[in-house]
Write a structure and sequence with these properties.
The complex is a heterodimer of chains A (about 375) and B (about 120).
Chain A: E1 3-7, H1 27-31, E2 40-44, E3 58-59, E4 73-78, E5 92-95, E6 104-105, E7 109-114, E8 116-119, E9 126-127, E10 134-139, E11 142-144, E12 151-153, E13 159-164, E14 167-169, E15 176-178, E16 183-188, E17 191-193, E18 200-201, E19 209-211, E20 214-216, E21 223-225, E22 232-234, E23 237-239, E24 247-251, E25 256-259, E26 262-264, E27 268-271, E28 277-280, E29 283-285, E30 299-301, E31 318-319, E32 346-352, E33 360-366
Parallel strand pairs in A: 1-2, 2-4, 3-6, 4-7, 5-8, 6-9, 7-10, 8-11, 9-12, 10-13, 11-14, 12-15, 13-16, 14-17, 15-18, 16-19, 17-20, 18-21, 19-22, 20-23, 21-24, 22-25, 23-26, 24-27, 25-28, 26-29, 28-30
Antiparallel strand pairs in A: 30-31, 32-33
Chain B: E1 2-4, H1 12-19, E2 27-29, E3 39-40, E4 49-51, E5 58-59, E6 65-67, E7 74-75, E8 100-108, E9 111-119, E10 122-123
Parallel strand pairs in B: 1-2, 2-4, 3-5, 4-6
Antiparallel strand pairs in B: 7-10, 8-9
């Protein structure tokens, strides 16, 4: 396991990545070397000050970690170009300059990308290009202001991606587009907003998971699970303010579970088009239709009342009607978000958008 | 006036302008004004400033200042968009449109039975 170095500001070194003084000037130079599983590549660009503007799409073709030994190859954006780089969330910025389509193409296994920003591509910020890119981890990355999607997986299969603490915003198309079948996606603590298309489009995967994510103000549906099966959405905030005609969540596949999620200000809070969805302990508010239309006969809502007795299997399911799954039974006359009674569960949520990378999602479910 | 952190893409701009006014010298920061088809925006308004915005397919007044924005013109192929995304001012493409980058033909006895086209969005 070896540590290598990329620094967009260095000059006069040996250009072999062996130290900060001899760092490579660009990311592609590092990828082109025979990196091994377990290697770490520390990357410094001083945020926007000395961002990298790649001359061609950066191609990960063949650079892979290992499923059996050594694990991931890690690329980590750093805040300084000395010592261990002091990674503190400062991004290594890849700016497509309106000419790169996409900035990065993926075709490799077991890659870990942390503290990176992908911006201003003429097309997608990141695109798998229809080839295999399996088991990638994206931590604290930003995909913004790209000419198509922020992140796109067009057609490859058996693809697994983890997004932790990532932001997808201001892209012309979707924040994230996953058209591929048999792909597996997990989003934790991600923020997806103000994209021209959908927030998250088509997790056509089995077992997709979105947990504690904030998804709002996208031009189309916030979440579109076109043919996704067995997916779970929990503890998210999904808000359709400024969206004129779309869904909070569209369920196009069976057995999608939506739990403890706030779904607000959308035309259809959940549109299930006659697919089997299980919804429980969510808060619906301000939607034109909380639960889509009359065709959603397989959209089941767990009750919010205290009469749900799991030990004796006495839970009451209300079919096609969200009333039982929200805290609309809360007797208080205020907004109902923070009330605590002995008869209902309560959802307390908040979002703070600062626009400077310190966005927060507050969420709590109690009784 | 500063218009900040807004999704004004495609039809959202019209909704915004129902409630807000854009005047000479206004600034847009971190707004998404991208359109799927080219569109002239803010005609007759002078001295606008855009910072850190997505301005794909925006045709802006000539004295506009653009700082650190994605400002490109792009022809989107409707074959590569699902039906629900073909919105706003985008005209559906013909089968053999200008976005075709490759094609396959299936022939039997010299007769083309099927033609499959491959498309790509094009930078203008």
């Amino acid at each position: 396991m070896t540590t290598y170095y990329v620094d967009t500001t260095v000059s006069g070194g040996l250009d072999n990545g062996s130290s900060w003084a001899n760092a490579w000037n660009d990311l592609q130079a590092a990828i082109d070397k025979p990196l091994a599983a377990g290697d770490v590549v520390l990357c410094y660009s001083n945020g926007d000050t000395n961002k990298e503007s790649p001359g061609a799409t950066i191609d990960f073709d063949g650079t892979s970690g290992s499923n059996s030994s050594g694990g991931y190859i890690k690329f980590i954006g750093c805040s300084t170009n000395s010592g261990d780089g002091s990674p503190d969330g400062t991004k290594y910025v890849l700016d497509g300059g309106g000419a790169r389509d996409p900035i990065i193409a993926l075709n490799s296994l077991r890659i870990w990308i942390e503290n990176f920003r992908f911006t201003n591509a003429s097309g997608d910020g990141v695109n798998t290009g229809g080839i295999n890119a399996n088991i990638w981890v994206w931590i604290n990355c930003i995909f913004d202001n790209n000419g198509d999607c922020g992140w796109s997986c067009s057609s490859n299969s058996s693809s697994t991606h983890w997004f932790i603490g990532c932001q997808f915003y201001g892209n012309t198309g979707d924040g994230l587009e996953a058209i591929a079948a048999s792909a597996y996606y997990t989003f934790v603590n991600c923020v997806v907003y103000q994209n021209g298309g959908r927030g998250i489009d088509g997790i056509q995967s089995q077992n997709g998971i979105l947990s504690r994510c904030l998804i709002f103000d996208n031009g189309d549906s916030n979440i579109n699970l076109a043919i996704a099966h067995y997916s779970i959405i929990d503890s998210c905030i999904i808000d359709g303010t400024n969206q004129s005609s779309e869904n909070g969540i569209y369920l196009g596949g069976d057995l999608v579970y939506v739990f403890a999620t706030r779904i607000t200000n959308s035309v259809n809070g959940i549109e299930a088009t006659d697919n089997l969805g299980i919804v429980g302990w969510c808060l619906f508010d301000g939607n034109t239709n909380d639960s889509g239309d009359a065709t959603d006969t397989l959209l089941y809502h767990l009750p919010f009342q205290s009469d749900l007795d799991l030990t004796s299997n006495k839970g009451v399911f209300s079919e096609g009607n969200p009333a039982g799954s929200t805290n609309k039974f809360d007797p208080d006359t205020d907004d109902g978000y923070e009330d605590a009674t002995s008869l209902d569960y309560n959802v307390k949520t908040s979002r703070t958008y600062n626009g400077d990378g310190t966005d927060t999602v507050g969420f709590n479910v109690g009784s | 006036m500063i218009h900040r952190n807004r999704n004004l893409s495609n039809t959202a701009l019209a909704l915004y302008l129902d409630e807000h006014t854009v005047s000479d010298g206004d600034t847009f920061e971190r707004c998404n004004l991208s359109r799927l088809g080219q569109e002239s925006l803010f005609s007759g308004i002078t001295g606008l400033i855009f910072r850190n915005c997505n301005l794909v397919n925006c045709l802006l007044p000539p004295d506009t200042t653009v700082e650190n924005c994605l400002h490109i013109q792009k022809s989107f192929c409707t074959h590569k968009l699902d039906e629900k995304k073909v919105v706003h001012n985008l005209t559906p493409c013909e089968e053999n449109c200008s976005h075709v980058v490759d094609m396959d033909e299936i022939e039997v006895d010299g007769v083309v039975l099927l033609t499959k086209y491959y498309y790509k969005h094009i930078l203008l």
